[in-house]
């Protein structure tokens, strides 16, 4: 009875909190924007140093656990084996964790750094091109994936090896005790996880919708307006709710598998039609700069100088990835049963990080090459930077097979869009069903509808950015939850080794 009531309280409180935020952000958008911006500025300005330190600590911790004496421990019984093939697993990881973001920013972010670099680098220069690729590698490489792995590994260990519920609060039992983990503190942690997941998915739905609209406008002349965007959300909603209801094996994994091959095909063809030598040189040089300056770049923050670029990019990303850690971590844990800790770390951290860097080298140089060769003017490149949702399509149309590549990119974006959304539906349903790894379809449908209604409301109010901003501020406590998860997991692993 206690477990049932706990589940209901988390569910209803989460619904009320999400409803309040939705009404506030849509009906009183101006005040919501002011509050969210003030909160976010406070956390990133006064605690920017903490975000930088936290990401490094997460990486060192996950490397220590994965490649030390605990690496052979299996996430499940000693005789358990993975439920999914490596390709399906990678597809689910990539689609859930980074897919929409990489498609959205793969061209636009490197171009932005190329046009507006920092550290006194001349705009649109060779140095700016090097800086752009290195920065992209820093933002989408190993650090964000190590961040995701903290919650994912800890939860998978306690779920499948210790038979705990799939709730983030259960991770902390060895540290805070069962009473607090199942009491008010545990509920608070799970409710914050629900809110961060809803906010993250809703803003991704909105950004993905805007990019799909921009793509079909570029290809077919369909107008960019609210009506088209509502239709896009409605169509995608039917697809992602249907796939979530079908379950991991039938719905989500099939879409994920298909999209993995589509994305790989798009990447290969873009490399072939693009500036191949420049891409290869840029990748090798970028990796050298990324690895060689890894620690200085990861911890770089001015004591008295200007940190505006850092706040706009690196700190913003770190806050965003920490905000996504509950959602991605829960989903990654759910699909990782049977793997060893070492396999988990290799598959969740190193492989996706390498793939993200390859993606950035190819698509980033598609845009930078147009500026370096004078094919697009600086003014045209600034237009791409100003409207990142159009960047991919404005760049692709300058290359052979541009129309076909843009069409495939839209298909891939929709598939990543669906994978992120149905993963979010699955996680929200788990978190509000007392950690049930096979939550009821009624919860999946409800959370799917809530996400879409919120996305449409925020598109109508123009409030996507404030919701994203306030979710980053609200996720600030998760830095400490993740620190606690590290200590709790290490304590449990040490106890197991002694036994």
TrEMBL record:
Chief place where the protein resides: membrane
Residue stretches spanning the membrane: 9-28, 48-67, 88-108, 142-160, 188-207, 227-248, 260-277, 315-332, 344-363, 401-425, 445-464, 470-490
A Pfam family per the record: BCCT
InterPro entries: BCCT_transptr
Gene Ontology CC terms, in alphabetical order: plasma membrane
Entry's localization field: Cell membrane
Recorded topology in the membrane: Multi-pass membrane protein
Heme listed as a keyword: no
Coiled-coil blocks: none
One Gene Ontology molecular-function label: transmembrane transporter activity
Keywords, in A-Z order: Cell membrane, Membrane, Transmembrane, Transmembrane helix, Transport
Entry's family note: Belongs to the BCCT transporter (TC 2.A.15) family.
Name listed for the protein in its UniProt record: Glycine betaine transporter
